[in-house]
Specification:
Helix content is 79%, strand content 0%. It has a domain at 3-15 and 67-178. It has six helices and no strands. The longest helix has 43 residues, at 136-178. With 179 residues, the chain is mainly alpha-helical. It is elongated, with a radius of gyration of 19 Å.
Amino acid sequence: MSKLAQFPILLMLACVVAGTYGSIHNQISYTVSPDYFHAFKFHQFHVPEVLQSRLGASLVGWLASWWMGLIVGAPVLLVGLILPDADSYRRHALTAFAVVVVTTLVVGLGALAYGYLTISESTLPDDWRPYDVSDRIAFARAGNMHNFSYAGGAIGVITGSAYLFAVRMQIRRRANNKT
């Protein structure tokens, strides 16, 4: 199958990877602050009360993230077209998706760690009062992790693309060494 024929299949796979990442990511943030979901995300995504648990957090993660597969996957897959053949395109595009996921995870966890170091009752604005929140600090930390994870996806476009450029250079070097 040609590289161009693989593009839409790989783009759909990028959406599955992004949605799955969001579901797993939300298990971490639910652990940090169940309030973040009960006071905010479950309402935002109209999650039925019967699902307002970790299962609902995973559902929210899927709904909030699958579309990032389009935004992140398309440019990474376009860069991957520089690879010389369909097999290397498919193989290295999948690895590039893993690079994006790791980048996003590192940025999100970094933001969470930063939140643990910097967010306290004294750093929250006085007028910031989310409804039905018992732990405002944990809520803010989980929100920080969520916000920066989207930035992590954007940075992942760069790291995933850089990986593909590096692979292309390595393939070119090997070809030049054979001649």
